[in-house]
Design goal:
It is built from ten helices and eight strands. The chain is α/β, with parallel strands linked by helices and 328 residues long. The chain has a single domain, classed as Ureohydrolase domain (Arginase, Chain A).
Length: 328
């Protein structure tokens, strides 16, 4: 079902708004347009309802009309078509954030985050609380048209949301609500292009690559993110690319990189984020059912979202600060 506008009606506590964004042209391989349907089939709505949330499914977005008169930048494939998506996503994200719901943007490739984060950031700027973004991804996605090696725009999303140049008129009539680079955390990174690496270093963006995760553990590193957000009374948008996970666990992505997060590492990240109470919005991106194995990746993604919203094996008082149980 297609949704023509975002709901602004309910401020009920515990409300989650699902919105499908079946975009695939930002990626190098087709198939992510089936991602929203796969997540629904894997039971994302049912799991969240079982956790006590009211869930509103707003269907799937459709892009606006393509502006054929747009002057296209070099090295940015399908710029005009992605522009038709991003302005629409941004407006829906803004309205959903205003409604009091926690929006979950179901992709679709990672270019959708240009719109989802922009819309949420616009609302946060109006409400007076800084927005931080946690980028769970194998890739930094901090390329611009000037640095990219592939011209695929799903690899430019983080750069766009931090205000980098080279993306003129990408939002159409929507205002651009960029975040400061010091409010972006790249987490789980294990693939980055040479010029992209230089730009990330120049902007002093926080990055926890897999070497850091191996050395310090996800618990220590994700608590650092949480502490930074809390210190500024901020809120958190989680942009979860399923290639954050090891491809042995989640094969249904078009850009697999070996050595990703394990099942337990990923669940611990989600559990600690839930404990923090900071998450106000979420992307789930790059799920490609065409490449999956009998829905395996979609099911794992839904299990992780369950952990992010409070699913746990046993009751705890405050899991991230609890006293260790006595041994058997």
């Amino acid at each position: 079902m297609s949704s023509s506008g975002a709901s602004t009606a309910s401020n009920a506590p515990g409300l989650i708004a699902l919105l499908g964004v079946p975009i695939e042209i930002g990626a190098g391989q087709r198939g992510t347009l089936m991602g929203p349907a796969a997540l629904r089939t894997a039971g994302i709505g049912r799991v969240l309802e079982q956790l006590g949330f009211a869930v509103e499914d707003h269907g799937d977005l459709a892009p606006a009309a393509v502006d054929a008169s747009l002057l296209l930048p070099p090295n940015a494939k399908f710029y005009d078509e992605i522009r038709a998506w991003i302005g629409t996503v941004s407006e829906h994200a803004y309205q959903l954030a205003r409604s009091g719901a926690v929006p979950i943007f179901m992709g679709g490739d990672h270019s959708l985050s240009m719109g989802s984060v922009n819309g949420v950031a616009r609302h946060c700027a109006e409400s007076g609380r800084p927005l931080f973004v946690l980028w769970l991804d194998a890739h930094a996605d901090y390329n611009t048209p000037a640095t990219t090696m592939t011209a695929n725009m799903h690899g430019m999303s983080a750069a766009f949301l931090c205000g980098e140049p080279g993306f003129d008129q990408l939002l159409g009539d929507q205002p651009r609500a960029s975040i400061n680079p010091d409010r972006l955390d790249l987490f789980g990174i294990r693939s980055i292009d040479p010029l992209e690496k230089d730009l990330v270093r120049k902007r002093q963006i926080a990055i926890a690559d897999m070497r850091a995760i191996d050395e310090f553990g996800v618990g220590v590193l994700i608590r650092r993110v949480i502490d930074r957000v809390k210190a500024q009374d901020g809120v958190l948008h989680v942009s979860f690319d399923v290639d954050f996970l090891d491809p042995e666990l989640a094969p249904g992505v078009g850009t697999t990189v070996p050595g990703g997060a394990t099942y337990r590492e990923a669940h611990l990240v989600m559990e600690l984020l839930h404990d923090s109470g900071l998450v106000r919005s979420l992307d789930i991106v790059e799920l490609n059912p065409f490449l999956d194995e009998r829905g395996r990746t979609a099911r794992v993604a839904v299990e992780l979202i369950g952990s992010l919203f409070g699913m746990q094996i046993s009751d705890r008082q405050t899991p991230s600060n609890a006293v260790l149980p006595d041994g058997e």
